[in-house]
Write a structure and sequence with these properties.
The chain is α+β, with helices and mostly antiparallel strands and 185 residues long. It contains 4 helices and 8 strands. The longest helix is centred in the middle third of the chain and has 20 residues. It is elongated and about 60 Å long.
Length: 185
């Protein structure tokens, strides 16, 4: 399915779930306005239409939230991307588009990632040389951990998810969402 088909299906799914004609969703540091009748998603901060991949993530999030009436509460149990259903097949793309980007940017100065809490919904997490939990959506925590290089190993990073993320997003959506995070930090 291309973006057009995926977006069309998501709009159809959403319109059947809500009598509201206007919705909003906070994604990272921006609030998006969703007009169900006009089938538009716009960034509140810059008043422009959202990119297609952002529209898909937001619509899938809202669909799941409306279907469940409330998203599952974070379990507190962190899992690796490979533990997500379908994650093993997407892992090479996930690693290249997310973990490798984090290592490149923060691998030699892990503590610098802690400053992103000033501009993104995030909090420090005591793991590795630097750890931070980012909330791309309020109910969706993502843990990024970074380790400095030492005499034996180069710098490393890992991205973990709350076990309940699979109740909200499929593996492909998680890759896209995590890539958005990696670009934002």
């Amino acid at each position: 399915m291309g973006y057009e088909q995926t977006i069309g299906k998501a709009w159809n799914d959403l319109s059947g779930l809500s009598s509201e004609k206007r919705l909003s969703a906070k994604l990272l540091s921006d609030i998006y306005d969703i007009d169900v009748d006009k089938k538009t998603v716009s960034s509140n901060s810059c008043n422009v239409p959202a990119k297609d991949y952002v529209v898909i993530i937001i619509l899938h999030y809202l669909i799941r939230k409306l279907k469940l009436k409330a998203l599952p509460v974070a379990s507190g149990e962190w899992i690796d991307f490979n533990q997500i259903e379908g994650g093993q097949g997407y892992y090479p793309a996930f690693k290249k588009r997310t973990i490798d980007r984090v290592v490149k940017k923060y691998g030699y100065a892990p503590e610098a990632i802690l400053k992103i809490g000033d501009r993104l919904p995030a909090k420090r997490y005591n793991k590795g040389d630097a750890g931070i939990v980012i909330y791309p959506f309020d109910e969706v925590p993502v843990l990024i951990t970074i380790w400095k290089e030492d005499d034996e190993f180069g710098p490393e990073a890992n991205i973990l998810f709350d076990r309940n993320i699979s109740s909200i997003f499929c593996a492909e959506d998680i890759v896209v969402l995590t890539e958005m995070i990696a670009h934002s930090i």
